[in-house]
Amino acid sequence: MSIHQNRPIDHEDAEQILRGDPAARAGRSRLDGVLAAAAAPAGAWETAGEDAAAAAFAAAHLASPPQRRRTSMLKSGVAKILTVKVAAACLAIGGAGVALAAGTGVLPSPLPKPPAQHSVDPSPSAHPRPSGRPSRHPGLPAELLKLCQRYAADPDGARLGDLGRPEFGKLVEGAGGKDRDRVDHFCADVLESDPSGTPGDYPDDPDGFDGSDGFDGADSSDGPDGHDGLDGHDGPDGHDDPDGAS
Amino acid sequence: MAADPIGDPHDLAAALTAAQAGDEAAFRTIYRAQQPALLRYLTVLVGADAEDVASDAWLRIARDMRTFRGDWDGFRGWAATVARHRAMDHRRRARRRLVVAGPVEVLAADLAAAHDPAGEVLDAIDTAAAIAFIGSLPRDQAEAVMLRAVVGLDAETAGKVLGKRAGAVRTAAYRGLRTLSRRLDQYDGIPGRGSGRATTGMGMAALKEVK
Questions:
Q1: Comparing C-alpha atoms, which of A5, A35, A34 is closest to residue B204?
Q2: For residue A227, which of A126, A161, A219, B77 is within the disulfide window of CB 3.0 to 4.6 Å?
Q3: Nearest to B58 among A32, A41, A56 (CB)
């Protein structure tokens, strides 16, 4: 039993213990025992979900190419074609929306119901997840959905600024103008029509973690549960289509 | 970290890159490296529901990891963040409070069990006992200790996960360790625990064997 055993731990001790410093740990053999046990090698039961996770990974990878790593996408001819299609579909929807707005005096729905009156027929891929399953087609809806999720994730005050950012260009285009209300309505429709309904996904946004403005700002102000309000509209499970995992 | 069965950060950094390019075997490597620590961390947040929440988190990680930008340490922080958000969703939905048993009693019971040298299942009991003991701390302290000592994050990364400054995480972890240490000392003095300190020593020796 170390002579230090009963000396109260100070800040510096704690840092050394947490870093696994052997000398600091040696002086706290019982605490070391607890921490070592807590970090002991995995039991087999702990990784029992590996196959399910791997299946989800495989499904996600087959589903669509990464949407933010365009440099690699653009190297492929297929990707180029898809990009053109995306742009075309985007313009078509934007155009239809403007036409509708002009005709009816109301804001355009970005996802018009079966468009008898539309001269431009949005391709089936223009409807995000119409069957209630995640789109398996890399295209406009998934991208817009993602953009809307990011847009909705931002605090109110930041949204106007978002509209000027290049990465939201497609969203502005899809909504029919760099107008706060338009984009708000547009995204409300997009998110509502997405059966998986995950506007709250953004706190997990991979880009947010290392980003300078990260997700921290979103929930740092209301304590440990602070993100609650932000992903409160999550679907029942908060993730997309568990079926897709298998 | 000790909970990491592979351990070499270089291998894991390479696995991360490969997994982001679609390599399923690399993803499995990452899963095996991170899942135990995430599961244990989740246990202090959602108790027995940790496995379900971890599965939920891995679906998200599997789906979104291609767009993750950062190194291996950053990835571990991001994965912990995903897990934490899923746990908070779960807590909110379930509207239940994690029932925390008396820390000393829990540990004492498990230590008593650990004296039985039979069977490898004791490894799990020891780890579970240690996590339950840490989980008996106020949540901010328990999270800080778990993220740093078990998930193996530095204070800055743990702060990102928790939405706190690194200094606040250090303080919470320090308070947590101090409390744990004090409770371990108290356990020494509990009557009826064999020969007191000696019994505790044996119990902790049993815990340490799991290392």
A1: A34
A2: A219
A3: A56
- Report the run of H or E that residue B183 belongs to, with start and end: helix B166-188
For residue B165, give every residue at least 6 positions away whose Cβ sits within 8 Å of its Cβ, in sequence order, or none: B159
Q: Do A34 and B130 touch (CB under 8 A)?
A: yes
Tell me the residue type at B74. Answer: G
Closest CA to B3 of B80, B102, B69: B80
User: In A, which residues are within 8 Å of B163 by CB distance?
Assistant: 215-216, 219-220, 224, 226-227
Q: Please enumerate, as own/partner, the contacts of B191-198 that have beta carbons within 8 Å and a separation of 24 or more.
A: B193/B108, B197/A1
Provide the pLDDT confidence category of residue A135 given band limits of 50, 70 and 90. very low
- Nearest one of B123, B158, B122 to B141, comparing CA atoms: B158
Q: pLDDT per residue over B144-182, tens digit each? A: 999 999 999 999 999 999 999 999 999 999 999 999 998
Which tokens is B76 given? 């571990």
Chain A interface mutation, best of B41, B85, B92, B133, highest count of A Cβ atoms under 10 Å: B85
Closest CA to A118 of A106, A140, A137, A101: A101
CA distance B10 to chain A (A): 19
User: In whole angstroms, what is the distance from residue A138 CA to residue A41 CA?
Assistant: 40
The residue of chain A with its CA nearest to that of B197 is A1
Q: Name the one residue in this structure whose structure tokens are 């799990």.
A: B124
How many Å apart are CA B92 and CA A150, to the nearest integer? 22
Average pLDDT, chain B: 80
Size of interface A-B (CB pairs under 8 A): 240
The two tokens of residue A66 are: 């990464």
B164: its two tokens? 């706190």
C-beta separation of A223 from A33 below 8 A: no
pLDDT tens per residue, range B34-54: 999 999 999 999 999 999 999
Please name which of B170, B81, B172 lies closest in space to residue A210, comparing C-alpha atoms.
Answer: B81
Half-sphere exposure for B185 (CA within 13 Å, toward CB): 14
Write the CA distances from B193 to A13, B57, B104, B127, B134, integer angstroms: 29, 41, 11, 21, 21
Structure tokens at B168: 């606040």
Q: Is B15 on the interface with A (CB under 8 A)?
A: no
**Which contiguous run of DSSP H or E holds residue A185?**
helix A180-193
Q: Mean pLDDT, to the nearest integer, of B60-67?
A: 93
Q: Provide ipTM, 2 decimals.
A: 0.77
Taking contacts as CB-CB distances below 8 angstroms, the residues of chain B near A47 are 31-32, 35-36
Would you say A53 and B55 are in contact if contact means Cβ atoms under 8 Å apart?
yes
